[in-house]
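So, can you check?
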Amino acid sequence: MTLAELLASVALTARLGPVHVDASWDDVTAALGEPRDMLRNRRWPRLFGYGDLEVLVCRCRQVRLVTVQTWTETVEVPMYAGLFPGEPTETDVVAALDRAGCAWEADSAHTFGGQRGLRVPVTSARFVFAVPESGEPLLHSMGLPDNGHRCPTAT
């Protein structure tokens, strides 16, 4: 499996194993172990990481946002042994989405300057590509956005 194929599957299902928007943080840590704290000494919401997977967690301990950073030379995704080569091309990502039967569209909200975005309407998954001056756009990140959660523990 390539990184583009894995991310197409995530975009289609809005899940990466136990990780998805609205997942219980207890369930995620039970499955994946303790993460690294990306922003130490910060109040909730908190950003945690497992390799190149980043998870934003609300004070009510629900996952609010899921992002896989792909801009590095290699990409580590929990539950998958080894590393994936980073920065898949836009052509590779679009081909993987098409093979998975995952409809996508241009994302004008994330297309400006040196970047271009694609969005999967059924899950709201977003792919953001860095557009170099020459050559093909390269995937910078893929994410599953918050769904409008209003924390019941907010004051």
The mean pLDDT is 92. Residues 3-144 form one domain. Residues 128 and 151 are 27 Å apart (CA to CA).
